[in-house]
Amino acid sequence: MTSTDVVVIGGGQAGLAAGYHLRRRGLDFVILDADPAPGGSWQHMWNSLHLFSPAEHSSLPGRLMPAQPGETYPGAGHVVDYLTDYEKRYGLPVRHGTRVIAVRRDAGRLLVETDTGTWRARAVISATGTWSRPFLPAVPGRDVFTGRQLHTVGYRSPAGFAGQRVIVVGGGNSGAQIAADLALDGHIEVTWVTQRPPRILPDDIDGRALFDVATARRRALDSGRRDTGGVASLGDIVAVPPVRAARDAGLLTAKAMFSRLTADGAQWPDGSRAGADAIVWCTGFRPALSHLAPLGLRGRRGHIPTDGTRALGEPRLHLLGYGDWTGPASATLIGVGRPARDAAHEIAQLG
Ligand code: FAD
What we know:
The protein has two domains: 2-133 and 285-348, 3-Layer(bba) Sandwich (FAD/NAD(P)-binding domain), CATH 3.50.50.60; 148-200 and 236-281, FAD/NAD(P)-binding domain, CATH 3.50.50.60. Helices cover 22% and strands 23% of the residues. The chain has helices spanning 13-24, 76-89, 173-185, 207-222, 241-248, 337-349, and strands at 2-9, 29-33, 94-96, 100-106, 109-114, 117-126, 148-151, 165-169, 189-194, 254-256, 260-262, 265-267, 273-275, 278-281, 306-307, 310-311, 314-319. Flavin-adenine dinucleotide is lined by residues 9-15, 32-35, 40-42, 45, 49, 51-53, 58, 99-100, 127-129, 131-132, 173-174, 207, 288, 291, 321, 331-334.
């Protein structure tokens, strides 16, 4: 067993931002990451994915993301390069290829059990993201459909769908971008299906504006004023270039959600049908928290109740990233720096 001040679980952007601030506090720590290579979930995203903010608005603490030549909105590969460089530049002690299985309490400390051994720590920061927990809705007929079904996490590019009829399910950014990616290919018949009418943001609103809204909300909450609301009030879908191109070409018209799948397609409540060779489920994610189950902290909707990043039921545990419930915009590159700093500060005060 190895002892340290802090074990950070997850070496994506949230884990690296935590490492940056733990180092500044002079704490001894290790970052355990299940992926064999740096970059967190960005290394698994689809080929045409672009950030919804320019590089300089997508930076972790301490180091601006350099612009990607020829692109206003950097691609996922550029983010992987940036995170790889960030890890090296700050000499962050990331152990790739190490999966955490369980976290348990042990005589005033936390034990972190991995597939390669156990760590003992004064505190743990869990930053495992959501990518490894894709969510699929329970839709009648899902097991009857004989075509191909994949989730966002399994989608890479239009290759392999040529000449096919594909239904893309989901009215968020992933659904819009993947529907656009497939439709712009020109050889695929795409039906985009959303639960509510999709709301594409005005072209001049990108991740910068969304971050400003999140910041205003945080200020309001911090000073005890009324909650100004999250980014959801503005719309759901950022009009990144492929989404704009598909929309302007009339290729991004959504249909209402179907009521069931059949062996060869989908059926709507009015009885109408569409044949399909494949369904791409862009239906979101849940936080990857199973390693924390032994602590018995799960609250509503699978979240762990927190005050800021600190788990209410376990003061030695902090949660970073995941979604707004661990701090406004904490699941974004630019937004995770502040909660990471606060977590490191609180951990430094622990006995
Ligand atoms: P991840 O990147 O998922 O990293 C988690 C790490 O934890 C992984 O390396 C994983 O291997 C590891 N891990 C998981 N479980 C374990 C375990 N049990 N033991 C050890 N390690 C483990 N944000 C922006 O700022 N701008 C954007 O434009 C933007 N676009 C997005 C587009 C899409 C399609 C998606 C899905 C998200 C986007 N985001 C964007 C949001 C956000 O930046 C990403 O979700 C981000 O990857 C979250 O970072 P993270 O470090 O919390 O998690």
